[in-house]
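User: For a benchmark we're assembling, each entry needs the component sequences followed by a predicted structure for the full assembly. Here are entry 17's components. Please fill in the structure.
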Amino acid sequence: MRLVHIIIAVGVLLVALVPLALPFLEFVLTIAIAKGFAALGVALLLRAGMISIGHAMFYAVGAYTAAFLGTKLGVTDLAAMLLLALLMSALTGLILGAFLVRYRAIFFAMLNLAISMVVFALASKFYGITGGSDGLRVPIPTIFGWAPDKPVFDTVLFYVALTLAVSIGYLVYRYLKSPLGHALASIHTNEVRLEYLGVSAWAVLLAAYVISASLAGIGGAIAAVSIGHVLPEYAFWTESGHFVLTAVLGGIGGVVGPFIGSIFLESVHSVAVNYAAEYWNMIMGAALLIVIFFLPRGLYGLIERRKPNGEDKL
Amino acid sequence: MRGWVSWRKDRCWITNCSGFFMTQTLIPLLVDALANAALIFFVAVGLTLVFSVLRILNVAHGSFYSIGAYVAASLGLWIVSIGAPPWLTFPALLLSAALVAALFGPLIEHTLIRWTYGKSEAVQILVTFGLFLILEDLQRLLFGVQSIYSDTPMSLLGVSEIGGIIYLNYQLVLVGLAVMVLVGLRVFVRHTRTGRLLTAVVADREVSLAMGIDTNRMFMIAFTLGVFLAALGGAMATPTTGVAPGLGADTMVLAFAVAAIGGLGQVEGAALAAIIVALAKVLAIYFMPALDAVAPYIVMVVVLSIRPHGLFGTAQTRRI
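Assistant: Structure for entry 17:
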Protein backbone atom coordinates (compact mmCIF):
# COMPACT_ATOMS: atom_id res chain seq x y z
CA MET A 1 0.00 0.00 0.00
CA ARG A 2 1.44 3.30 -1.04
CA LEU A 3 1.41 6.39 1.09
CA VAL A 4 -1.25 8.04 -1.04
CA HIS A 5 -3.63 5.12 -0.47
CA ILE A 6 -3.19 5.42 3.27
CA ILE A 7 -3.85 9.16 3.09
CA ILE A 8 -7.02 8.51 1.08
CA ALA A 9 -8.24 5.81 3.52
CA VAL A 10 -7.62 8.11 6.49
CA GLY A 11 -9.39 10.93 4.65
CA VAL A 12 -12.49 8.81 3.96
CA LEU A 13 -12.54 7.67 7.60
CA LEU A 14 -12.29 11.28 8.78
CA VAL A 15 -15.17 12.32 6.52
CA ALA A 16 -17.21 9.40 7.87
CA LEU A 17 -16.53 10.41 11.49
CA VAL A 18 -16.90 14.19 11.20
CA PRO A 19 -20.74 14.30 11.36
CA LEU A 20 -20.66 12.34 14.64
CA ALA A 21 -18.65 15.14 16.20
CA LEU A 22 -20.10 18.08 14.25
CA PRO A 23 -23.67 17.21 13.15
CA PHE A 24 -24.20 20.46 11.22
CA LEU A 25 -21.52 19.37 8.74
CA GLU A 26 -23.55 16.32 7.73
CA PHE A 27 -25.64 18.24 5.19
CA VAL A 28 -22.63 20.19 3.90
CA LEU A 29 -20.68 16.99 3.35
CA THR A 30 -23.61 15.23 1.63
CA ILE A 31 -23.89 18.09 -0.84
CA ALA A 32 -20.10 18.14 -1.21
CA ILE A 33 -20.15 14.44 -2.16
CA ALA A 34 -23.05 15.03 -4.58
CA LYS A 35 -21.17 17.85 -6.29
CA GLY A 36 -17.98 15.82 -6.11
CA PHE A 37 -19.63 13.20 -8.32
CA ALA A 38 -20.45 15.85 -10.93
CA ALA A 39 -16.95 17.31 -10.68
CA LEU A 40 -15.50 13.82 -11.16
CA GLY A 41 -17.52 13.58 -14.36
CA VAL A 42 -16.06 16.88 -15.57
CA ALA A 43 -12.58 15.75 -14.53
CA LEU A 44 -12.84 12.60 -16.67
CA LEU A 45 -13.38 14.73 -19.76
CA LEU A 46 -10.64 17.15 -18.69
CA ARG A 47 -8.20 14.24 -18.80
CA ALA A 48 -8.98 14.03 -22.51
CA GLY A 49 -8.30 17.78 -22.75
CA MET A 50 -12.00 18.43 -23.26
CA ILE A 51 -13.77 20.95 -21.11
CA SER A 52 -17.51 20.88 -20.61
CA ILE A 53 -19.13 24.06 -19.32
CA GLY A 54 -22.54 22.39 -19.36
CA HIS A 55 -22.40 19.39 -17.10
CA ALA A 56 -24.94 20.88 -14.74
CA MET A 57 -27.56 19.69 -17.25
CA PHE A 58 -26.86 16.05 -16.32
CA TYR A 59 -26.85 17.03 -12.66
CA ALA A 60 -30.30 18.51 -13.30
CA VAL A 61 -31.45 15.44 -15.24
CA GLY A 62 -30.53 13.25 -12.26
CA ALA A 63 -32.20 15.63 -9.81
CA TYR A 64 -35.38 15.99 -11.86
CA THR A 65 -35.58 12.22 -12.39
CA ALA A 66 -35.51 11.69 -8.63
CA ALA A 67 -38.09 14.44 -8.10
CA PHE A 68 -40.33 13.07 -10.87
CA LEU A 69 -40.34 9.58 -9.44
CA GLY A 70 -41.23 10.93 -6.02
CA THR A 71 -43.91 13.46 -6.96
CA LYS A 72 -45.50 12.23 -10.17
CA LEU A 73 -44.99 8.48 -10.27
CA GLY A 74 -45.17 7.68 -6.57
CA VAL A 75 -41.85 5.83 -6.52
CA THR A 76 -40.21 6.86 -3.28
CA ASP A 77 -37.58 4.19 -2.82
CA LEU A 78 -34.10 5.71 -2.53
CA ALA A 79 -32.39 2.89 -4.44
CA ALA A 80 -34.89 3.13 -7.30
CA MET A 81 -34.47 6.91 -7.41
CA LEU A 82 -30.69 6.74 -7.58
CA LEU A 83 -30.68 3.92 -10.11
CA LEU A 84 -33.20 5.55 -12.43
CA ALA A 85 -31.42 8.90 -12.13
CA LEU A 86 -28.25 7.11 -13.19
CA LEU A 87 -30.00 5.47 -16.14
CA MET A 88 -31.74 8.64 -17.28
CA SER A 89 -28.58 10.74 -17.16
CA ALA A 90 -26.63 7.98 -18.92
CA LEU A 91 -29.28 7.87 -21.64
CA THR A 92 -29.25 11.66 -22.01
CA GLY A 93 -25.46 11.53 -22.08
CA LEU A 94 -25.55 8.89 -24.80
CA ILE A 95 -27.93 10.87 -27.01
CA LEU A 96 -26.18 14.23 -26.57
CA GLY A 97 -22.71 12.68 -26.48
CA ALA A 98 -23.17 10.98 -29.86
CA PHE A 99 -23.46 14.48 -31.30
CA LEU A 100 -21.09 16.37 -29.01
CA VAL A 101 -17.98 14.18 -28.98
CA ARG A 102 -17.41 14.92 -32.66
CA TYR A 103 -16.27 18.35 -31.57
CA ARG A 104 -13.09 19.41 -29.82
CA ALA A 105 -11.82 22.23 -27.64
CA ILE A 106 -13.87 25.41 -27.98
CA PHE A 107 -16.73 23.85 -29.89
CA PHE A 108 -17.12 21.07 -27.36
CA ALA A 109 -17.08 23.53 -24.46
CA MET A 110 -19.50 25.98 -25.98
CA LEU A 111 -21.93 23.40 -27.41
CA ASN A 112 -22.19 21.84 -23.97
CA LEU A 113 -22.88 25.30 -22.56
CA ALA A 114 -25.48 26.01 -25.25
CA ILE A 115 -27.34 22.75 -24.70
CA SER A 116 -27.29 23.19 -20.94
CA MET A 117 -28.84 26.63 -21.40
CA VAL A 118 -31.54 25.02 -23.54
CA VAL A 119 -32.19 22.49 -20.76
CA PHE A 120 -32.35 25.35 -18.25
CA ALA A 121 -34.77 27.31 -20.46
CA LEU A 122 -37.00 24.28 -21.00
CA ALA A 123 -37.01 23.39 -17.30
CA SER A 124 -38.06 26.91 -16.35
CA LYS A 125 -40.61 27.35 -19.15
CA PHE A 126 -42.67 24.14 -19.02
CA TYR A 127 -44.65 24.70 -15.85
CA GLY A 128 -46.93 21.72 -16.38
CA ILE A 129 -44.12 19.19 -16.31
CA THR A 130 -41.21 20.67 -14.38
CA GLY A 131 -43.03 23.12 -12.13
CA GLY A 132 -41.29 25.99 -13.94
CA SER A 133 -39.12 28.26 -11.84
CA ASP A 134 -40.87 27.04 -8.68
CA GLY A 135 -39.31 23.65 -9.25
CA LEU A 136 -40.49 20.39 -7.75
CA ARG A 137 -40.58 19.29 -4.14
CA VAL A 138 -38.99 15.90 -3.47
CA PRO A 139 -40.70 13.79 -0.77
CA ILE A 140 -38.49 12.07 1.79
CA PRO A 141 -37.61 8.73 0.15
CA THR A 142 -38.15 5.37 1.77
CA ILE A 143 -35.37 2.83 2.06
CA PHE A 144 -36.60 -0.64 1.02
CA GLY A 145 -39.98 -0.09 2.64
CA TRP A 146 -38.60 1.65 5.73
CA ALA A 147 -39.82 5.24 6.06
CA PRO A 148 -37.48 7.16 8.39
CA ASP A 149 -38.16 10.75 9.42
CA LYS A 150 -36.04 13.57 7.99
CA PRO A 151 -33.09 13.71 10.45
CA VAL A 152 -32.64 9.93 10.43
CA PHE A 153 -32.94 9.85 6.66
CA ASP A 154 -30.30 12.57 6.32
CA THR A 155 -27.85 10.54 8.34
CA VAL A 156 -28.58 7.40 6.32
CA LEU A 157 -28.27 9.39 3.08
CA PHE A 158 -24.90 10.75 4.11
CA TYR A 159 -23.47 7.27 4.67
CA VAL A 160 -25.13 5.97 1.49
CA ALA A 161 -23.54 8.85 -0.44
CA LEU A 162 -20.16 8.19 1.14
CA THR A 163 -20.37 4.47 0.37
CA LEU A 164 -21.36 5.26 -3.20
CA ALA A 165 -18.50 7.73 -3.52
CA VAL A 166 -16.00 5.09 -2.38
CA SER A 167 -17.42 2.22 -4.47
CA ILE A 168 -18.16 4.18 -7.64
CA GLY A 169 -14.90 6.06 -7.16
CA TYR A 170 -13.10 2.72 -7.13
CA LEU A 171 -14.90 1.65 -10.33
CA VAL A 172 -13.87 4.89 -12.03
CA TYR A 173 -10.31 4.31 -10.80
CA ARG A 174 -10.35 0.85 -12.43
CA TYR A 175 -11.79 2.42 -15.57
CA LEU A 176 -8.97 4.96 -15.72
CA LYS A 177 -6.43 2.14 -15.29
CA SER A 178 -8.06 0.10 -18.07
CA PRO A 179 -7.04 0.38 -21.75
CA LEU A 180 -10.17 2.46 -22.33
CA GLY A 181 -9.09 4.91 -19.64
CA HIS A 182 -5.56 5.19 -21.04
CA ALA A 183 -7.01 5.73 -24.51
CA LEU A 184 -9.01 8.61 -23.01
CA ALA A 185 -5.89 10.33 -21.68
CA SER A 186 -4.13 9.78 -25.00
CA ILE A 187 -6.77 11.84 -26.79
CA HIS A 188 -5.24 14.79 -24.98
CA THR A 189 -1.64 13.88 -25.78
CA ASN A 190 -1.93 12.54 -29.32
CA GLU A 191 -5.30 11.82 -30.84
CA VAL A 192 -4.05 11.12 -34.35
CA ARG A 193 -1.69 8.41 -33.13
CA LEU A 194 -4.55 6.85 -31.20
CA GLU A 195 -6.55 6.58 -34.39
CA TYR A 196 -3.54 5.13 -36.23
CA LEU A 197 -3.50 2.42 -33.57
CA GLY A 198 -6.96 1.44 -34.79
CA VAL A 199 -8.82 2.88 -31.80
CA SER A 200 -11.87 5.01 -32.51
CA ALA A 201 -11.46 8.29 -30.65
CA TRP A 202 -15.20 8.86 -31.08
CA ALA A 203 -16.09 5.62 -29.27
CA VAL A 204 -13.53 6.24 -26.49
CA LEU A 205 -14.88 9.72 -25.93
CA LEU A 206 -18.50 8.64 -26.11
CA ALA A 207 -17.88 6.02 -23.42
CA ALA A 208 -16.21 8.68 -21.27
CA TYR A 209 -19.03 11.13 -21.94
CA VAL A 210 -21.73 8.64 -20.90
CA ILE A 211 -19.80 7.75 -17.74
CA SER A 212 -19.27 11.41 -16.92
CA ALA A 213 -22.97 12.19 -17.51
CA SER A 214 -24.00 9.28 -15.25
CA LEU A 215 -21.68 10.51 -12.49
CA ALA A 216 -23.22 13.98 -12.69
CA GLY A 217 -26.69 12.35 -12.65
CA ILE A 218 -26.03 10.42 -9.46
CA GLY A 219 -24.71 13.60 -7.89
CA GLY A 220 -27.88 15.44 -8.90
CA ALA A 221 -30.12 12.73 -7.45
CA ILE A 222 -28.26 12.75 -4.14
CA ALA A 223 -28.50 16.55 -3.98
CA ALA A 224 -32.22 16.44 -4.86
CA VAL A 225 -33.21 14.01 -2.09
CA SER A 226 -30.90 15.75 0.38
CA ILE A 227 -32.21 19.28 -0.28
CA GLY A 228 -35.77 18.06 -0.91
CA HIS A 229 -36.36 20.52 -3.74
CA VAL A 230 -35.21 20.74 -7.36
CA LEU A 231 -35.02 23.97 -9.35
CA PRO A 232 -34.09 24.87 -12.94
CA GLU A 233 -31.00 26.52 -11.41
CA TYR A 234 -29.54 23.02 -11.07
CA ALA A 235 -28.85 23.24 -14.82
CA PHE A 236 -27.65 26.86 -14.80
CA TRP A 237 -24.23 27.67 -16.23
CA THR A 238 -22.86 28.92 -12.90
CA GLU A 239 -23.41 25.43 -11.53
CA SER A 240 -21.48 23.98 -14.48
CA GLY A 241 -18.75 26.50 -13.84
CA HIS A 242 -18.71 25.43 -10.24
CA PHE A 243 -18.13 21.80 -11.28
CA VAL A 244 -15.27 22.73 -13.58
CA LEU A 245 -13.70 24.82 -10.85
CA THR A 246 -14.14 22.00 -8.33
CA ALA A 247 -12.46 19.52 -10.68
CA VAL A 248 -9.56 21.86 -11.44
CA LEU A 249 -9.12 22.89 -7.82
CA GLY A 250 -9.14 19.32 -6.55
CA GLY A 251 -6.95 18.09 -9.39
CA ILE A 252 -7.79 15.82 -12.29
CA GLY A 253 -4.92 13.40 -11.70
CA GLY A 254 -6.90 10.96 -9.60
CA VAL A 255 -10.45 10.02 -8.70
CA VAL A 256 -10.07 11.56 -5.25
CA GLY A 257 -9.16 15.04 -6.52
CA PRO A 258 -12.66 16.26 -7.43
CA PHE A 259 -14.02 15.06 -4.07
CA ILE A 260 -11.23 16.87 -2.22
CA GLY A 261 -11.99 19.99 -4.24
CA SER A 262 -15.70 19.66 -3.57
CA ILE A 263 -15.39 19.15 0.18
CA PHE A 264 -12.95 22.06 0.36
CA LEU A 265 -15.18 24.38 -1.65
CA GLU A 266 -18.41 23.46 0.11
CA SER A 267 -16.79 23.99 3.52
CA VAL A 268 -15.47 27.37 2.44
CA HIS A 269 -18.85 28.20 0.92
CA SER A 270 -20.78 27.32 4.09
CA VAL A 271 -18.58 29.77 5.98
CA ALA A 272 -18.44 32.43 3.25
CA VAL A 273 -22.19 32.45 2.62
CA ASN A 274 -22.66 34.44 5.81
CA TYR A 275 -20.15 37.11 4.87
CA ALA A 276 -19.78 37.27 1.11
CA ALA A 277 -22.71 35.59 -0.62
CA GLU A 278 -22.79 38.24 -3.36
CA TYR A 279 -19.11 37.86 -4.16
CA TRP A 280 -19.15 34.07 -4.39
CA ASN A 281 -18.74 33.98 -8.18
CA MET A 282 -15.91 36.46 -7.90
CA ILE A 283 -14.18 34.36 -5.27
CA MET A 284 -14.63 31.27 -7.43
CA GLY A 285 -13.25 33.05 -10.50
CA ALA A 286 -10.23 34.33 -8.62
CA ALA A 287 -9.64 30.89 -7.09
CA LEU A 288 -9.84 29.35 -10.56
CA LEU A 289 -7.22 31.77 -11.90
CA ILE A 290 -4.93 31.23 -8.92
CA VAL A 291 -5.14 27.44 -9.22
CA ILE A 292 -4.44 27.53 -12.97
CA PHE A 293 -1.52 29.91 -12.52
CA PHE A 294 0.14 28.37 -9.49
CA LEU A 295 -1.27 24.87 -8.91
CA PRO A 296 -1.97 23.23 -12.27
CA ARG A 297 -2.26 19.79 -10.68
CA GLY A 298 -4.77 20.91 -8.08
CA LEU A 299 -4.92 20.06 -4.38
CA TYR A 300 -4.55 16.37 -5.20
CA GLY A 301 -1.18 17.21 -6.77
CA LEU A 302 0.06 18.07 -3.27
CA ILE A 303 -0.30 14.48 -2.03
CA GLU A 304 0.23 12.47 -5.24
CA ARG A 305 3.60 11.91 -6.91
CA ARG A 306 4.04 13.74 -10.23
CA LYS A 307 3.08 11.55 -13.17
CA PRO A 308 5.77 11.26 -15.84
CA ASN A 309 3.48 11.71 -18.85
CA GLY A 310 1.75 14.75 -17.43
CA GLU A 311 -1.75 13.32 -17.81
CA ASP A 312 -2.72 14.80 -14.49
CA LYS A 313 -2.15 18.34 -15.77
CA LEU A 314 -4.55 20.52 -17.69
CA MET B 1 -54.13 17.37 -40.17
CA ARG B 2 -57.15 19.52 -39.43
CA GLY B 3 -55.10 21.68 -37.11
CA TRP B 4 -52.56 22.29 -39.83
CA VAL B 5 -55.17 23.40 -42.37
CA SER B 6 -56.88 25.77 -40.00
CA TRP B 7 -53.54 27.14 -38.90
CA ARG B 8 -52.66 27.94 -42.49
CA LYS B 9 -55.95 29.71 -42.90
CA ASP B 10 -55.54 32.21 -40.11
CA ARG B 11 -51.80 32.71 -40.26
CA CYS B 12 -50.51 31.81 -43.66
CA TRP B 13 -46.86 31.08 -44.13
CA ILE B 14 -44.35 33.21 -46.02
CA THR B 15 -44.66 31.38 -49.34
CA ASN B 16 -48.43 31.46 -49.50
CA CYS B 17 -49.37 34.82 -48.17
CA SER B 18 -52.15 37.18 -48.76
CA GLY B 19 -50.97 40.75 -49.07
CA PHE B 20 -52.46 41.65 -45.73
CA PHE B 21 -50.32 39.30 -43.70
CA MET B 22 -47.27 40.23 -45.76
CA THR B 23 -47.41 43.94 -44.98
CA GLN B 24 -49.08 43.99 -41.60
CA THR B 25 -47.13 41.26 -39.88
CA LEU B 26 -44.19 40.07 -41.86
CA ILE B 27 -42.42 43.34 -42.58
CA PRO B 28 -42.42 44.61 -38.99
CA LEU B 29 -41.21 41.15 -38.01
CA LEU B 30 -38.39 41.46 -40.52
CA VAL B 31 -37.43 44.92 -39.26
CA ASP B 32 -37.46 43.55 -35.73
CA ALA B 33 -35.28 40.65 -36.80
CA LEU B 34 -32.81 42.92 -38.60
CA ALA B 35 -32.52 45.24 -35.59
CA ASN B 36 -31.92 42.19 -33.40
CA ALA B 37 -29.42 40.86 -35.91
CA ALA B 38 -27.54 44.16 -35.77
CA LEU B 39 -27.12 43.90 -32.00
CA ILE B 40 -26.02 40.26 -32.15
CA PHE B 41 -23.68 41.09 -35.03
CA PHE B 42 -21.70 43.65 -32.98
CA VAL B 43 -20.90 41.07 -30.30
CA ALA B 44 -20.37 38.13 -32.61
CA VAL B 45 -18.05 40.00 -34.95
CA GLY B 46 -15.94 41.11 -31.98
CA LEU B 47 -15.72 37.53 -30.76
CA THR B 48 -14.80 36.24 -34.19
CA LEU B 49 -12.21 38.99 -34.70
CA VAL B 50 -10.48 38.24 -31.40
CA PHE B 51 -10.57 34.55 -32.20
CA SER B 52 -9.03 34.91 -35.64
CA VAL B 53 -6.14 37.10 -34.49
CA LEU B 54 -5.43 35.75 -30.99
CA ARG B 55 -6.74 32.22 -31.59
CA ILE B 56 -8.43 32.41 -28.22
CA LEU B 57 -12.11 32.11 -27.58
CA ASN B 58 -12.80 34.78 -25.00
CA VAL B 59 -15.53 33.33 -22.79
CA ALA B 60 -15.73 36.68 -20.99
CA HIS B 61 -16.71 38.43 -24.23
CA GLY B 62 -20.39 38.55 -23.25
CA SER B 63 -19.44 40.37 -20.04
CA PHE B 64 -18.10 43.28 -22.08
CA TYR B 65 -21.47 43.46 -23.78
CA SER B 66 -23.29 43.72 -20.47
CA ILE B 67 -20.69 46.12 -19.01
CA GLY B 68 -21.11 48.31 -22.08
CA ALA B 69 -24.87 48.16 -21.56
CA TYR B 70 -24.61 49.07 -17.88
CA VAL B 71 -22.24 51.98 -18.52
CA ALA B 72 -24.39 53.32 -21.36
CA ALA B 73 -27.62 53.04 -19.37
CA SER B 74 -26.09 54.70 -16.30
CA LEU B 75 -24.55 57.46 -18.40
CA GLY B 76 -27.86 58.01 -20.22
CA LEU B 77 -29.80 58.24 -16.96
CA TRP B 78 -27.20 60.61 -15.55
CA ILE B 79 -27.35 62.92 -18.57
CA VAL B 80 -31.13 63.10 -18.27
CA SER B 81 -31.01 63.60 -14.50
CA ILE B 82 -28.66 66.62 -14.63
CA GLY B 83 -30.91 68.24 -17.20
CA ALA B 84 -28.42 68.26 -20.07
CA PRO B 85 -29.82 68.24 -23.60
CA PRO B 86 -31.24 64.75 -24.22
CA TRP B 87 -29.60 64.37 -27.65
CA LEU B 88 -26.33 64.00 -25.74
CA THR B 89 -27.42 60.43 -24.97
CA PHE B 90 -26.46 59.43 -28.54
CA PRO B 91 -22.78 60.28 -28.28
CA ALA B 92 -22.97 58.82 -24.77
CA LEU B 93 -23.73 55.39 -26.28
CA LEU B 94 -20.55 55.50 -28.37
CA LEU B 95 -18.56 57.10 -25.58
CA SER B 96 -19.44 54.38 -23.11
CA ALA B 97 -18.37 51.65 -25.54
CA ALA B 98 -15.06 53.45 -26.09
CA LEU B 99 -14.62 53.89 -22.34
CA VAL B 100 -15.16 50.20 -21.64
CA ALA B 101 -12.75 49.24 -24.42
CA ALA B 102 -10.05 51.67 -23.25
CA LEU B 103 -10.42 50.56 -19.64
CA PHE B 104 -10.62 46.78 -20.03
CA GLY B 105 -9.04 45.96 -23.41
CA PRO B 106 -5.34 46.69 -22.87
CA LEU B 107 -5.46 45.82 -19.16
CA ILE B 108 -6.93 42.35 -19.56
CA GLU B 109 -4.96 41.52 -22.68
CA HIS B 110 -1.71 42.52 -20.96
CA THR B 111 -2.30 40.54 -17.79
CA LEU B 112 -4.50 37.47 -18.25
CA ILE B 113 -4.84 36.82 -21.96
CA ARG B 114 -1.15 37.24 -22.77
CA TRP B 115 -0.29 34.57 -20.23
CA THR B 116 -2.39 31.98 -22.04
CA TYR B 117 -0.80 32.33 -25.50
CA GLY B 118 0.55 28.94 -26.52
CA LYS B 119 -1.18 27.15 -23.63
CA SER B 120 -3.73 24.41 -24.24
CA GLU B 121 -7.26 25.39 -25.20
CA ALA B 122 -8.65 23.99 -21.93
CA VAL B 123 -6.42 26.45 -20.03
CA GLN B 124 -7.46 29.34 -22.28
CA ILE B 125 -11.14 28.58 -21.78
CA LEU B 126 -10.67 28.20 -18.02
CA VAL B 127 -8.76 31.47 -17.65
CA THR B 128 -11.33 33.48 -19.60
CA PHE B 129 -14.11 31.66 -17.75
CA GLY B 130 -12.52 32.70 -14.43
CA LEU B 131 -12.39 36.27 -15.73
CA PHE B 132 -16.05 35.96 -16.72
CA LEU B 133 -17.08 34.89 -13.20
CA ILE B 134 -15.16 37.82 -11.70
CA LEU B 135 -16.67 40.34 -14.13
CA GLU B 136 -20.20 39.03 -13.47
CA ASP B 137 -19.98 39.73 -9.75
CA LEU B 138 -18.16 43.00 -10.36
CA GLN B 139 -21.19 44.22 -12.33
CA ARG B 140 -23.55 43.06 -9.61
CA LEU B 141 -21.44 44.98 -7.12
CA LEU B 142 -21.22 48.20 -9.12
CA PHE B 143 -24.67 48.34 -10.71
CA GLY B 144 -26.81 46.30 -8.33
CA VAL B 145 -29.28 43.56 -9.21
CA GLN B 146 -32.12 45.87 -10.27
CA SER B 147 -32.79 46.17 -13.97
CA ILE B 148 -31.60 49.52 -15.39
CA TYR B 149 -33.52 51.08 -18.25
CA SER B 150 -32.70 54.22 -20.22
CA ASP B 151 -34.83 54.66 -23.34
CA THR B 152 -34.15 58.34 -24.03
CA PRO B 153 -32.40 57.76 -27.39
CA MET B 154 -35.24 55.58 -28.65
CA SER B 155 -38.07 57.87 -27.62
CA LEU B 156 -36.17 60.89 -29.02
CA LEU B 157 -36.02 59.34 -32.48
CA GLY B 158 -39.68 58.51 -32.43
CA VAL B 159 -41.46 56.45 -35.02
CA SER B 160 -42.10 56.76 -38.71
CA GLU B 161 -44.93 55.41 -40.79
CA ILE B 162 -44.29 53.87 -44.20
CA GLY B 163 -47.16 52.27 -46.06
CA GLY B 164 -49.38 52.07 -43.03
CA ILE B 165 -46.79 50.31 -40.87
CA ILE B 166 -45.18 51.97 -37.91
CA TYR B 167 -41.44 51.55 -37.41
CA LEU B 168 -39.23 52.52 -34.54
CA ASN B 169 -36.65 54.81 -36.08
CA TYR B 170 -34.10 53.57 -33.61
CA GLN B 171 -34.31 50.10 -35.13
CA LEU B 172 -33.43 51.54 -38.53
CA VAL B 173 -30.48 53.37 -36.98
CA LEU B 174 -29.26 50.07 -35.50
CA VAL B 175 -29.37 48.35 -38.88
CA GLY B 176 -27.57 51.29 -40.48
CA LEU B 177 -24.85 51.25 -37.83
CA ALA B 178 -24.36 47.51 -38.26
CA VAL B 179 -23.87 47.95 -42.01
CA MET B 180 -21.40 50.76 -41.27
CA VAL B 181 -19.45 48.54 -38.89
CA LEU B 182 -19.39 45.71 -41.44
CA VAL B 183 -18.12 48.00 -44.22
CA GLY B 184 -15.79 49.83 -41.83
CA LEU B 185 -14.19 46.58 -40.67
CA ARG B 186 -13.68 45.52 -44.27
CA VAL B 187 -12.02 48.81 -45.18
CA PHE B 188 -9.93 48.71 -42.00
CA VAL B 189 -8.69 45.17 -42.61
CA ARG B 190 -8.07 45.54 -46.35
CA HIS B 191 -6.95 49.12 -46.79
CA THR B 192 -5.14 50.37 -43.70
CA ARG B 193 -1.63 49.58 -42.57
CA THR B 194 -2.75 48.21 -39.19
CA GLY B 195 -5.45 46.12 -40.82
CA ARG B 196 -2.99 44.55 -43.23
CA LEU B 197 -0.58 43.82 -40.40
CA LEU B 198 -3.46 42.11 -38.59
CA THR B 199 -4.19 40.03 -41.69
CA ALA B 200 -0.55 39.01 -41.82
CA VAL B 201 -0.65 37.91 -38.17
CA VAL B 202 -3.81 35.91 -38.83
CA ALA B 203 -2.22 34.22 -41.84
CA ASP B 204 1.06 33.27 -40.17
CA ARG B 205 2.03 34.33 -36.71
CA GLU B 206 5.66 33.13 -36.75
CA VAL B 207 6.52 34.59 -40.16
CA SER B 208 4.94 37.92 -39.20
CA LEU B 209 7.08 38.01 -36.09
CA ALA B 210 10.14 37.17 -38.16
CA MET B 211 9.28 39.98 -40.59
CA GLY B 212 9.38 42.44 -37.71
CA ILE B 213 5.69 42.86 -36.95
CA ASP B 214 5.06 43.63 -33.31
CA THR B 215 2.60 40.74 -32.82
CA ASN B 216 1.96 41.60 -29.18
CA ARG B 217 0.80 45.05 -30.23
CA MET B 218 -1.43 43.49 -32.89
CA PHE B 219 -2.97 41.17 -30.29
CA MET B 220 -3.69 44.13 -28.04
CA ILE B 221 -5.27 46.12 -30.88
CA ALA B 222 -7.45 43.19 -31.95
CA PHE B 223 -8.52 42.40 -28.40
CA THR B 224 -9.36 46.03 -27.62
CA LEU B 225 -11.31 46.31 -30.86
CA GLY B 226 -13.19 43.15 -29.92
CA VAL B 227 -14.04 44.58 -26.49
CA PHE B 228 -15.16 47.82 -28.15
CA LEU B 229 -17.50 45.97 -30.52
CA ALA B 230 -19.01 43.92 -27.70
CA ALA B 231 -19.49 47.03 -25.53
CA LEU B 232 -20.96 48.86 -28.53
CA GLY B 233 -23.51 46.08 -28.96
CA GLY B 234 -24.43 46.34 -25.29
CA ALA B 235 -24.62 50.12 -25.37
CA MET B 236 -26.80 50.16 -28.46
CA ALA B 237 -29.10 47.55 -26.92
CA THR B 238 -29.90 49.61 -23.80
CA PRO B 239 -32.52 51.91 -25.36
CA THR B 240 -34.61 48.89 -26.38
CA THR B 241 -34.28 46.64 -23.33
CA GLY B 242 -33.37 46.87 -19.68
CA VAL B 243 -30.01 45.66 -18.37
CA ALA B 244 -30.11 43.00 -15.66
CA PRO B 245 -27.64 40.46 -14.23
CA GLY B 246 -27.24 37.32 -16.33
CA LEU B 247 -27.17 39.25 -19.59
CA GLY B 248 -23.48 38.50 -20.10
CA ALA B 249 -23.86 34.71 -20.12
CA ASP B 250 -26.83 34.71 -22.47
CA THR B 251 -25.08 37.09 -24.84
CA MET B 252 -21.87 35.10 -24.78
CA VAL B 253 -23.57 31.87 -25.78
CA LEU B 254 -25.66 33.63 -28.41
CA ALA B 255 -22.59 35.39 -29.83
CA PHE B 256 -20.74 32.10 -29.94
CA ALA B 257 -23.67 30.42 -31.67
CA VAL B 258 -23.65 33.17 -34.29
CA ALA B 259 -19.88 33.12 -34.73
CA ALA B 260 -19.91 29.31 -35.00
CA ILE B 261 -22.76 29.28 -37.53
CA GLY B 262 -20.96 31.82 -39.68
CA GLY B 263 -17.62 30.10 -39.25
CA LEU B 264 -15.22 31.23 -36.51
CA GLY B 265 -13.05 34.05 -37.81
CA GLN B 266 -15.39 35.03 -40.67
CA VAL B 267 -16.68 38.62 -40.52
CA GLU B 268 -19.21 38.26 -43.35
CA GLY B 269 -20.21 34.86 -41.99
CA ALA B 270 -21.01 36.48 -38.66
CA ALA B 271 -23.23 39.04 -40.42
CA LEU B 272 -25.20 36.41 -42.32
CA ALA B 273 -25.46 34.15 -39.26
CA ALA B 274 -26.69 37.06 -37.14
CA ILE B 275 -29.55 37.60 -39.58
CA ILE B 276 -30.43 33.89 -39.68
CA VAL B 277 -30.39 33.58 -35.89
CA ALA B 278 -32.40 36.76 -35.38
CA LEU B 279 -34.99 35.58 -37.89
CA ALA B 280 -35.25 32.23 -36.16
CA LYS B 281 -35.66 33.98 -32.82
CA VAL B 282 -38.32 36.40 -34.04
CA LEU B 283 -40.28 33.64 -35.81
CA ALA B 284 -40.10 31.53 -32.66
CA ILE B 285 -41.41 34.42 -30.55
CA TYR B 286 -44.28 34.84 -33.01
CA PHE B 287 -45.25 31.22 -33.51
CA MET B 288 -43.97 29.32 -30.45
CA PRO B 289 -43.04 31.69 -27.62
CA ALA B 290 -41.89 28.86 -25.37
CA LEU B 291 -39.06 28.13 -27.79
CA ASP B 292 -37.71 31.66 -28.25
CA ALA B 293 -34.61 31.13 -26.11
CA VAL B 294 -33.95 27.78 -27.75
CA ALA B 295 -34.33 28.73 -31.43
CA PRO B 296 -30.76 30.04 -32.03
CA TYR B 297 -29.26 26.86 -30.61
CA ILE B 298 -31.48 24.66 -32.75
CA VAL B 299 -30.17 26.59 -35.77
CA MET B 300 -26.61 26.16 -34.50
CA VAL B 301 -27.02 22.41 -33.97
CA VAL B 302 -28.52 21.95 -37.45
CA VAL B 303 -25.85 24.05 -39.17
CA LEU B 304 -22.95 22.47 -37.29
CA SER B 305 -24.22 18.94 -37.96
CA ILE B 306 -24.15 19.66 -41.69
CA ARG B 307 -21.13 21.98 -41.81
CA PRO B 308 -18.97 21.43 -38.70
CA HIS B 309 -16.93 24.58 -39.44
CA GLY B 310 -19.89 26.85 -40.03
CA LEU B 311 -21.32 28.36 -43.19
CA PHE B 312 -18.22 30.29 -44.29
CA GLY B 313 -15.65 28.33 -42.31
CA THR B 314 -12.92 26.29 -43.90
CA ALA B 315 -11.94 22.86 -42.64
CA GLN B 316 -8.61 22.79 -40.85
CA THR B 317 -6.33 19.81 -40.74
CA ARG B 318 -6.23 18.34 -37.28
CA ARG B 319 -3.28 19.24 -35.15
CA ILE B 320 -0.77 16.47 -34.53
